[in-house]
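Lesson 9: reading folded outputs for more than one chain in a single document. The general rule is that every protein is listed as its sequence immediately followed by its structure tokens, and records are never interleaved. Here is the first one.
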Amino acid sequence: MPKQIPLALPALEATGVLDDLRRIVRALRESSRQAERRLGVSGAQLFVLRSLADGRALSLNDLATRTRTHQSTVSVVVKRLVEAGLLTRATSELDARRVEIRLTRRGRALIDRAPLAAQDKLISGIERLPRKERQVLAGSLRGLVLAMQLDDQPAVMFFEDDDAGAKPKKKSVRRVGT
């Protein structure tokens, strides 16, 4: 049997980083699959629905801020949820230039029986870190993205499908990702 070669310290550090990333991605993927099975919506869709749970209407930009995603990304998810009858879009009564997004009765019923989305737990975990650790994490992840030459890639919601224009399935919302 060949003798195991010990890993150098940088390799051990990389293994630890990869293991932790795998744990996070696994939790996000499992949460999305569970939402799909139990509720007929993806993890990303559940996350958007939960972001409107307080009952206040939000603009698309406000919703993007709340979900910590780009407006174009959340727009795709909202479109599918409107088509599925879980959200409505309407012109604001106070400002005709503003389109407001709200939960429908059906959307409210869905989130009332839904578990927390993994994205909620991820955001909560990041926000619980001390400020200095959040800054180091943000800088380190940005450095990794730059080193991997991924900075020109869109930062879409987790596991979002590439077929953004696809229509939802009947009696179920088309999977958008987490």
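And here is the second record, again sequence then tokens.
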Amino acid sequence: MSKSSYRSLDVWQEARVLTKEIYILTRSFPRIETFGLVSQMRRAALSIACNIAEGQGRWNPRDYRRFVLIARGSTFELEAQIIIAADIGYIDDPEPLIERTNEIAKKLNGLLRYLRKMQRTRPVTRYL
């Protein structure tokens, strides 16, 4: 990985925007959901961007890859929560958000492929 920051990654930028949208969207959910679905959706969305950042701060591609895998898992978790929120009637049209999570998952898959390649071609050293 180059010396550029995680902030320059398209996938991180998209995850950041999605997190903001989830925070705004969940403001309209019923108060009874504050410690339920609202909290879960916000944490899953936040986890995507934060794990990308934390992973890049690690010492080697193997650790970075592990955190990107966690971010990918959070992406699917958020997608499931979006679907459930729509099923309950909290979201009218979940498709744009589902498409966004799918796009982020694809980009995370690309980052994972890159990190796998780096793991094979470089000794375990700090790469930032």
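What the second record shows: The mean pLDDT is 92.
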